[in-house]
Amino acid sequence: xxxxxxxxxxxxxxxxxxxxxxxxxxxxxxxxxxxxxxxxxxxxxxxxxxxxxxxxxxxxxxxxxxxxxxxxxxxxxxxxxxxxxxxxxxxxxxxxxxxxxxxxxx
Length: 106
Hints:
- The protein is an alpha+beta fold.
- The chain has two helices and six strands, in the order αβββββαβ.
- Strand 3 and strand 4 form a beta hairpin.
């Protein structure tokens, strides 16, 4: 969940290309929810949905992977990683709920 869709904006193009290739090679799909006022990179295997920008106001990006949840505050100034299956389950459930409410991008 990214309030400002900053996930890839500072990533060098070569690194981004390698990242996308790794997703494809490992048959992974990344799902991103961002504000409806954000510029979206239409790049499979990344799927985007949007929520109203005023509902995405904040400075926290959430990453859910494996049994971990990472919270990125203020554009990477602080990152907190929680290794907990209970936390991962709760955050994944919250994400899936929001994903269901979010609008598909054209």
